[in-house]
Design brief:
Number of helices: 14
Shape: elongated
Distance between the termini: 81 Å
CATH architecture of the largest domain: 3-Layer(aba) Sandwich
Order of helices and strands: HHHHEEEEEEHHEHEHHEEHHEHEEEHH
Strand content: 5-15%
Strand order of the largest sheet: 7-6-8-11-12
Number of strands: 14
Number of domains: 2
CATH superfamily of the largest domain: SGNH hydrolase
CATH class of the largest domain: Alpha Beta
Length: about 425
């Protein structure tokens, strides 16, 4: 009955529904209020729109070919076979046209084909920046490293014999004093990649706290899983801090689970990562899962965008943000076991970072939003480097110190500068070259 000609429009309309659904996924959740606009990188929206449009046109076309009965004047089976073959060839041709238009749209939006990461800095230290480590995968190499970036920009990173970056001058009187220690854990933003030793927020915080020693455990490329292992090793050595600060950014999620998007980065050595096992239990493993390029992703922005979309789906499947929550939960348990106060610090304005801070507050963790919007030109080093610039580090230092004073982790007598807003401190220090 449904094959009768009068039903063909109903069938064709029904076949268009999946395409319309795919297109609807390109809209932001509140599109009725804010109107249609691109969100995120835009590549996901383009892929969904292109795929949806293709389905809207092609599915009804195929449906018409398959459902509408053959005319009595046509040659039965042979006629239908020719129609289906013609429809398939037409759909294939349309697919090539659609792919070309989508490729053009992505290129116009600034999306590119895959380019393997290149070394962006060279060191005059005569040695590599990293050393192999059996537990952490790698650590920074001791010594003074002068790095030259693009456009003549350079910075000096000095690491102590214990591989940690310095937070005060080598001849500082504080080096000979037994003062309470504040340990900072994190990634390259905590380490201070692309800024000088005296411009990192750990150095600025140490300078503003004459009665405390700030220790910078930050290492380029680390995630929360390394921070947890670092803390465990440091406590096992017998050291005991007065306070621990764990700096978190949403980019740590992909590092913690060693997602495909993180494995794309050249030079990432074998390292610890955390994933759920078959029993849905979190386990920490060691290694470097293989990364295989998709054919054509070095030449096509469309294929590269599809690969990135796949990576996003993988992140959902791996539950990377949930893994980060559990790792930070273990960090909290380790601090409570040793009766050490600790603070979870958010480093950027990303929604996932905000969500982690909200989760921390629900768990009664001490949290501070050190938010610096790294998308703003005044806070990043673009086009030379995307890491926080000196202004951002000064803001981090001010925001963290203000919080520690407010929360009672340090007393007002510990600070040698007036109580000021962190962002304002960042602007002042930047103008004066601090």
């Amino acid at each position: 009955m449904l094959a009768r000609p009068e039903w063909k429009w109903a069938w064709m309309a029904a076949c268009a529904v999946p395409g319309l659904f795919v297109m609807s996924r390109a809209l932001p959740p509140n599109w009725i209020e804010v109107g249609f606009r691109w969100h995120g990188s835009g590549s996901t929206q383009v892929l969904l729109l292109a795929g949806g449009l293709y389905a809207v046109f092609v599915c009804p076309f195929l449906c018409k070919t398959a459902v509408v009965p053959v005319s009595p004047h046509e040659d039965g089976l042979n006629s239908r076979t020719r129609r289906i073959l013609f429809a398939l060839i037409t759909c294939l041709a349309m697919a090539f046209v659609w792919a070309g238009l989508t490729e053009f749209a992505l290129r116009a939006m600034g999306q590119q084909s895959y380019r393997p990461p290149q070394l962006t800095a060279s060191s005059d230290a005569g040695s590599d920046l990293f050393l192999d480590h059996a537990v952490l995968g790698y650590t920074h190499a001791p010594g003074r490293h002068c790095f030259d970036l693009r456009d003549g920009h350079s910075f000096v990173a000095t690491h102590l014999s214990n591989t940690l970056r310095i937070t005060r001058p080598p001849d500082s009187p504080k080096n000979n004093l037994s003062l309470p220690e504040i340990w900072l854990f994190g990634c390259s933003m905590t380490h201070g990649w692309s800024v000088g030793d005296d411009q990192t927020f750990s150095w600025l915080l140490d300078r503003s706290l004459p009665n405390d020693n700030v220790v910078n455990f930050g290492v380029t490329g680390y995630g929360s899983v390394q921070s947890l292992l670092q803390l465990r090793e440091a406590l096992d050595s017998g050291r005991r801090p007065a306070l621990v600060v764990l700096a978190y950014a949403s980019l740590h999620d992909e590092r913690n689970t060693m997602q495909r998007s993180w494995r794309k980065i050249a030079g990432v050595p074998a390292r610890p990562f955390a994933r759920f096992n078959e029993l849905d239990q979190l386990t920490i493993r060691f290694g470097r899962p293989a990364f295989h390029e998709w054919p054509g992703m070095r030449y096509s922005a469309l294929i590269h965008a599809a690969e990135r979309f796949y990576n996003q789906r993988e992140a959902v499947a791996m539950r990377s943000h949930e893994v980060s929550r559990l790792l930070i939960g273990r960090f909290d348990a380790l601090c409570r076991e040793h009766e050490i106060s600790w603070v979870l610090a958010g480093m950027d304005a990303e929604p996932a970072t905000k969500a982690m801070l909200a989760f921390g507050r629900s768990q009664s963790w001490a949290t501070v939003d050190m938010e610096v919007d790294l998308r703003l030109a005044r806070f990043n080093g673009k086009p030379i480097d995307a890491h926080p610039n000196p202004t951002a580090h000064a803001a981090y230092a001010g925001n963290l110190r203000d919080y520690l004073l407010d929360a009672g982790f340090i007393s007002g007598s510990d600070a040698d500068t007036p109580f000021v807003n962190g962002a304002a401190l960042g602007e002042v220090l930047s103008r004066h070259g601090g």
